[in-house]
Amino acid sequence: MLSVLATVPVEMGGLGGAVVYIDTESAFSAERLVEVAQNRFPGHFISEESLLQLTSRVHVYHESTSSQLLKRLQTLEEDIIEKKVKLIILDSVASLVRKEFDSRTSQNLYERTNLLAKEAAILKYLAESFYIPVVVTNQITTRFGFNLSEVDVMEKEDSVTSSENGYVTAALGNTWSHSVNTRLIIQYLDDRYRQILIAKSPVAPFAAHEYDIQDKGIVLKCNGARQYEGTDPGLQQIRVRTSLQKECFPT
């Protein structure tokens, strides 16, 4: 949905530019891009020409290794200028490093931290230099015990487990969480609705927005945002589909 919003004209609430979408999980769907566009702006995307213009403005790069990703980030400045990029999406920053670096060894953890720091520095430079938003997705993981040992999950979120001895949280640890300016946590509420938590922001307090996903993308519930009550949401367990099923259908 963000890709669609970035490409539509400013007078329609968009950014009127192009998008760089870096896909490390092979999750990008051109079909879904078109579906969201046609349902969110039915009066604008009514012809094949308008849809071709949309897809031509979304530049997708598939990177399969950390070194390829770093090289791509280092060359993005030219792309931003030439293609009039108004949004950068990296989906996800966690995928490649979790496959390539075993965080249980100190040397690998050191190398992983350094690599993530380089990527964060480049993305911040691009955002600040060109005044464009950069959206980066993380993954979730299960941590156990007081030593915060981690079980990395490389597959879909249903594989993540939550139990009395472990809890689901964001991957990559505190170092990465401190690298971002704004941090949003997306979690399940029930079978239909999900929730966006503002866990970190330079301009907003902790808050929660409920939403569901429709043909036109994310749709917020009409009751608006509510203030988040409790401790830092970034320190709380993330609610995933598996845990909701256990709560709704106890055995």
Structural class: alpha/beta
CATH topology of the largest domain: Rossmann fold
Rg over alpha carbons = 19 Å
Q: Per the principal axes of the C-alpha atoms, what is the gross shape?
A: globular
Helical percentage: 25-40%
Total helical elements: 9
Give the CATH architecture of the largest domain: 3-Layer(aba) Sandwich
Q: Give a quick account of the main beta sheet: strands, pairing sense, barrel closure.
A: 5 strands, antiparallel
Average pLDDT, rounded to a whole number, is 86
H and E order: HEHHEHHEHHEEEEHEEEEEH
Strand content: 15-25%
**Domain tally:** 2
Oligomer: single chain
Q: Uncertain regions: pLDDT < 50 for 5+ in a row?
A: 146-159, 243-251
CATH homology superfamily name of the largest domain: P-loop containing nucleotide triphosphate hydrolases
Count of strand segments: 12
Distance between the termini: 38 Å
Pfam family, one: Rad51
Protein name: DNA repair protein RAD51 homolog 2 isoform X2
Organism: Lingula anatina (Brachiopod)
GO molecular function, one term: double-stranded DNA binding
